[in-house]
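Worked example

This section walks through a single chain of length 119. The input is the sequence exactly as stored; nothing has been trimmed or padded.
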Amino acid sequence: MEANEVANTSAITIKVGLDKDRVPVKIEWAASDMHPDGQMEECKAMAVALFDKNHRDTLRIDLWTKEMQVQEMDRFFYQTLRSLSQTYLRATQNKDLAEEMAKFAHYFGEKTEIVPKGS
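Given that input, the structure is written out below as tokens.
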């Protein structure tokens, strides 16, 4: 099997319920290998980034429901920033820059009171 040959696939489905003003009120998602029966999981927010192969540009989808509170958004961003620094390290092996990103995530966590100050 070649390195880039597809051996298996998984479909990721995202359903967004909108109110009359086209504001998200419900977000559901599923992956075919997670729930083969099509069962959907509900979430309050999502941030998807795709890197376009041909245009070498990032496409983004950021949505959150009306019920998402500011404190929840702070936690969502803190956890996303932390995970991005870990992903960056795994993808590039650039430990110094990944640590700087993690420091900013920690600073963000302290400022939003997700992380206790001085921890």
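What to look for: The longest strand covers residues 24-31.
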